[in-house]
Amino acid sequence: MAGRFAPNQPTRTTVRGGHTPMPKAIPRQVTAAHTRRWTPPGPLDLGLVLGPLCRGPADPTFRTTPDGSVWRASRTPAGPGTLRVALRAAAGTDEAEAEAWGPGAEWLLEHLPALLGEADDPAAFTPRHRLVAASQHRRPGLRLTRTSLVLEALIPSILEQKVTTDEAYRAWRLLVRKYGEPAPGPDARMYVMPDPRTWALIPSWEWHRAGVDNKRASTILRAVRVARRLEEAAAMEPQQAQERLELIPGIGPWTSAETVQRSNGAPDAVTVGDLHLPGIVGYALAGDRNADDAAMLELLAPYAGQRHRAARLILLSGRTPPRRTPKMPRGDIGAL
């Protein structure tokens, strides 16, 4: 049927006692099997580039170390993999030094330049407000990442729908640690998120224990049933990718934008439907803390093609309206 996906039909096994089978752990390998060096085309700030991929301070798929390295555990098309990236000074410029472990190691290193913003073009952005210009000047190493992994960005974005970030981060952390698998490599604290079949087999009570209501859980279940079709969106133009994602009931413009910003490196995928962003943009650019989506889009219109970058620079400027209302209350799905 046009506009619909034919879901992938994984073979299900009967599990005694009704428990979801846990994935097998990958034997740990301390020495990286694969390494790569890559010289970025300009200034690069690892924290700014890869920071949006971190889902909270205890994200089991992401961590940073005191030496400035960034570690990521991902489920790639080739299998689970762990990537460590660090910047090293070399011949007067920064050079990215990467190590990778696991079946997905080669894939992760192949996509390292895209992950670090090779396809992004910061020079295409022209600031049209002094606050934006100042923010850009202070952060020359900001580039937009492109992971080429859709579900990895989509599922935590669905978990963030209509709840506080703390609640969403907790749900992601609990579900990945319980149903994901230990990440390959030397860090025993890292996990790779579950594969689509395992997401589909998580019992309803486990979603409830993680604080995920039925609406968000059902959206994730619909998404993982068509995981292959959704992953194809990583190779599409961002607008086409968003349209494909939004064919899934429960995925709207907010979730699709949050996803393609990461999976497709989309510089124009501005997040609409956000609780705070319109007021932040309105306050920063026009002193209007009560701006809605329409007003935000009007203010960002001069940045057409680069509206997501403009919004990021505004957020990084630190100019936000003073809080005058309580934070969004924590949800209690037990009361639903």
Structure description:
The protein is α+β, with helices and mostly antiparallel strands. Among the domains are: 34-120, Alpha-D-Glucose-1,6-Bisphosphate, Chain A, domain 4 (2-Layer Sandwich), CATH 3.30.530; 150-256, Orthogonal Bundle (Endonuclease III, domain 1). Helices cover 37% and strands 12% of the residues. β4 and β5 (93-101) form a beta hairpin.
Task: Supply database-style keywords.
336 residues, DNA-3-methyladenine glycosylase activity, Alpha-D-Glucose-1,6-Bisphosphate, Chain A, domain 4, alpha+beta, single chain, Endonuclease III, domain 1, 12% strand, disordered N terminus, two-stranded antiparallel sheet, 5-stranded antiparallel sheet
CATH homology superfamily of one domain: Hypothetical protein, domain 2
Low-confidence stretches: 1-26
Using only CA atoms, what is the Rg? 20 Å
Binned strand content: 5-15%
Derived structural class: alpha+beta
| CATH class category name of one domain | Mainly Alpha
Task: From the 3D structure, determine the CATH topology of one domain.
Answer: Endonuclease III, domain 1
Largest sheet: 5 strands, antiparallel
CATH architecture of one domain: Orthogonal Bundle
Oligomeric state of this protein = single chain
Helix content: 25-40%
Q: What strand line-up does the widest sheet have?
A: 1-5-4-3-2
| Element-by-element helix/strand order | EHEEEEHHHHHEEHHHHHHHHH
Shape: globular
**N→C terminal distance:** 34 Å
The number of helical elements comes to: 15
Average per-residue pLDDT, rounded, comes to 90
* Number of β-strand runs: 7
Organism: Streptomyces lunaelactis
GO biological process, one term: DNA alkylation repair
Protein name: 3-methyladenine DNA glycosylase
GO molecular function: alkylated DNA binding; DNA-3-methyladenine glycosylase activity; DNA-7-methylguanine glycosylase activity
